[in-house]
Amino acid sequence: MRVAIFDTKPYDRRFFDEANDGRHDLVFFEPRLSYNTAKLALDFPAICVFVHDSLDTRTVKRLSEGQTRLIALRSAGFNNVDLGAAHYYKMTVVRVPAYSPHSIAEHTVGLLLALNRRLHRAYNRVREGNFALEGLLGFDLHGKTVGIVGTGKIGTNTARILCGFGCNLLAFDPYPNPVIENELCGRYVDLDELLSESDVVSLHVPLTPDTQHLIGRRALNKMKEGAILINTSRGQLIDTAEAIDALKDGRLGGLGLDVYEEEDGLFFEDLSNQVIQDDVFARLLTFPNVIVTAHQAFFTAEALQNIAKTTLDNISEYEETGSSGNAVSLDQVKA
Ligand code: NAI
């Protein structure tokens, strides 16, 4: 099948070419998919997109005016797709539900360790010949309480790692995973109790209308004074302006982010020669107790191999049967 792959970098090309093995005719485009670039896809029956490609109503409509009938997401989340429009225009949407929950869980714990032990500051100090320890004081994770919000694949993997550290785990999820209480050291509680009892809170829920700004002023006020908040899920789970206020008055002790509300205009590009126009983001970068990585939690060789293989398998399955076990249905909760 001819596939137009949008928003590609050299690493995408490498892993897709390796996994393809001549199965499909892959054409790699650098631009992101938008209404304006959709015309590049007009004679492709399938397109492949990532998290910052926009499939809003008019883009989906424009795609439907050409040959495109399959939208293959090379991501787990599909909050960037207007599923109603895709359904209306009879497009099939497929995704990669799991590619390496370990990659994101391990990055989550990496952010937590770096923040707590001030590794980002220590790295710079030592390179400048400053071997003083003032300002680098951390705490033992052993014996501390970590709250896991969302215990699906990634949340459960994060919980497993933190159990190994000797943490106490609290969990919140409307659909509890028995593994958390039966095999791991966790206990399900309601969200308010999790927020008020945890030294560290880590978010692993999909972005839906219900979870947008899940952590805003109210939730931040519930949290333990000085607690650390980690978000490797979706930026819009946190009201960033409120988080900045909580950092300024010390209610929030640290913030580790791999995702940011307005990341679309920033992440995945080298903007080092430009002035950052997003003042909220620029303010975040001024805090010594904030670490931001640019949506790289998924970025391991194993994850990229799995993403490429599953995406191409989804396309093959669609080509052979007209559907796929990884198709996203209209009524599926947006992830
Ligand atoms: P999953 O679908 O396995 O688990 C999500 C869990 O959240 C489910 O158990 C669900 O019941 C729960 N949930 C839904 N609404 C909730 C709420 N209001 N409160 C508490 N729990 C709620 O998803 P998975 O694979 O664990 O991924 C989690 C999120 O991680 C994804 O939705 C995506 O946004 C993000 N992600 C980030 C990546 C990165 O590179 N930073 C890469 C891949 C995923």
Question: What can you see in these coordinates?
Answer:
By secondary structure, the chain is of the alpha/beta class. It has helices at residues 10-20, 57-64, 83-88, 101-116, 119-127, 153-164, 178-182, 191-197, 217-222, 240-248, 279-284, 301-321; strands spanning 2-5, 25-28, 46-49, 70-73, 92-94, 145-149, 168-172, 186-188, 200-203, 227-231, 252-257, 290-292. The protein has 2 domains: 2-99 and 301-328, Rossmann fold (3-Layer(aba) Sandwich); 101-292, 3-Layer(aba) Sandwich (Rossmann fold). It contains 12 helices and 12 strands. Helix 11 (279-284) links the parallel strand 11 (252-257) and strand 12. Helix 1 (10-20) packs across helix 12 and helix 4 (101-116) packs across helix 6 (153-164). 41% of the residues are buried. Bound molecules: 1,4-dihydronicotinamide adenine dinucleotide. Residues 76-77, 98, 101, 104, 149-155, 172-175, 204-207, 210-211, 232-234, 258-259, 295, 297-298, 335 line the site of 1,4-dihydronicotinamide adenine dinucleotide (NAI).
Query: What's the oligomerization state?
Result: single chain
Question: How many structural domains are formed by the residues?
Answer: 2
By secondary-structure content and strand pairing, the structural class works out as: alpha/beta
- Rg over CA atoms, rounded to whole Å, is 21 Å
Q: What is the total tally of β strands?
A: 12
CATH architecture of the largest domain: 3-Layer(aba) Sandwich
Q: For the largest beta sheet, what order do the strands appear in spatially? A: 8-7-6-9-10-11-12
Mean pLDDT, rounded to whole units? Answer: 96
Give the helix level as a range of percent: 25-40%
Order of helices and strands: EHEEHEHEHHEHEHEHEHEHEHEH
Instruction: Determine and state the CATH class of the largest domain.
Output: Alpha Beta
> What ligand molecules are bound, each kind once?
1,4-dihydronicotinamide adenine dinucleotide
Overall outline = globular
Low-confidence stretches: none
C-alpha end-to-end distance: 27 Å
Q: What's the name of the CATH homologous superfamily of the largest domain?
A: NAD(P)-binding Rossmann-like Domain
Beta-strand proportion: 5-15%
Major sheet, described briefly?
A: 7 strands, parallel
Give the number of helices.
12
> What is the CATH topology classification name of the largest domain?
Rossmann fold
